[in-house]
Write a structure and sequence with these properties.
Pfam families: TetR_HI_0893_C, TetR_N. The protein has 191 residues and is mainly α. The chain folds into two domains: 1-48, Homeodomain-like (Arc Repressor Mutant, subunit A), CATH 1.10.10; 58-188, Orthogonal Bundle (Tetracycline Repressor, domain 2). The protein contains ten helices and no strands. Helix 5 crosses helix 6 and helix 5 packs across helix 9 (147-166).
């Protein structure tokens, strides 16, 4: 795909993301997305057959961008350092990309999530997280508990922290974050 086409597609994604955050899934028609992205409505249909397809592809786009950010680490880091690094990078990404965070949260609470589940995809990055936890379990560093237990504690705490900061219930202080990830680490590491 050439750069100009990629830029148009990315502009459509970014406009859709912004407008959905402002107006919701149903309050964001394709014509509004096209106007905001400064493209013709037909251009959107060149890339996506329907609004549903656009939303599903936007979810994939957001997950890929997030995973590019959080899994960008030095492979020589010891496991514990990578555990802390990935969690902190996720929190940082969501705090600086709030539209992405709120879109993903809204997506999981919508019928669109059911469509993605039917496709039996890897949820765009969940495989990387699975392999990361599997490495920790196989090497005896973290407890041998189910992936879904680990992801609930790890990602659930990160998203909860982002919400607490966003809602103004707590300030974004490095000490609080360090305490939180240390508590998570102490709960999952092999004793």
């Amino acid at each position: 795909m050439n750069v100009q086409l990629l830029n148009k597609k990315e502009a459509i994604f970014e406009s859709t993301l912004k407008l959905i955050n402002e107006h919701g899934f149903h309050g964001t028609p394709m014509s509004q997305i096209a106007a905001h992205a400064n493209v013709a409505t037909g251009t959107i249909y060149h890339y996506f057959n329907s609004k549903d397809e656009l939303i599903l592809e936007l979810f994939k786009y957001c997950r890929e961008k997030t995973n590019e950010h959080i899994f960008n680490f030095d492979e020589d880091l010891v496991y514990k350092d990578r555990f802390f690094y990935i969690w902190n990078r996720l929190v940082d990404y969501y705090l600086t990309h709030k539209e992405t965070f709120w879109f993903i949260e809204q997506f999981y609470s919508s019928p669109y999530y059911e469509l993605i589940k039917q496709k039996k995809t890897t949820y765009y990055g969940v495989d990387k997280m699975y392999l990361f936890f599997e490495e920790g379990i196989k090497s005896g560093i973290i407890r041998n508990v189910s992936f879904y237990t680990l992801i609930s504690v790890y990602i659930g705490s990160a998203t909860s922290h982002v919400k607490m900061v966003t809602y103004g219930f707590c300030k974004m202080q490095s000490k609080s974050r360090e305490d939180l990830i240390e508590i998570i680490w102490n709960g999952v590491k092999n004793q």
